[in-house]
Amino acid sequence: MSIERAVTAFAGVMVLISVALTQLVSPWWWLMTAFIGINLLQSSFTGFCPAAMVMRRLGVGRGTTGGCCGK
């Protein structure tokens, strides 16, 4: 799996978890959803992606297409 797809999958899973926690636990979990969105937005402008850095250290392979998270 490429690092770009791994980051996208991770972000999607985290959003779904935060939505579920919002419904089951507390509306304050919307802050987690907002944090994920802000992180994705800043990554698209700056190219800095903390999740990609962590996944690269864990050995997730790089994609051949480049992209913001493949740097």
TrEMBL record:
<keyword id="KW-0472">Membrane</keyword>
<keyword id="KW-0808">Transferase</keyword>
<feature type="domain" description="Inner membrane protein YgaP-like transmembrane">
    <location>
        <begin position="2"/>
        <end position="56"/>
    </location>
</feature>
<keyword id="KW-1133">Transmembrane helix</keyword>
<dbReference type="Pfam" id="PF11127">
    <property type="entry name" value="YgaP-like_TM"/>
</dbReference>
<feature type="transmembrane region" description="Helical">
    <location>
        <begin position="32"/>
        <end position="54"/>
    </location>
</feature>
<keyword id="KW-0812">Transmembrane</keyword>
<dbReference type="GO" id="GO:0016740">
    <property type="term" value="F:transferase activity"/>
</dbReference>
<protein>
    <submittedName>
        <fullName>Sulfurtransferase</fullName>
    </submittedName>
</protein>
<dbReference type="InterPro" id="IPR021309">
    <property type="entry name" value="YgaP-like_TM"/>
</dbReference>
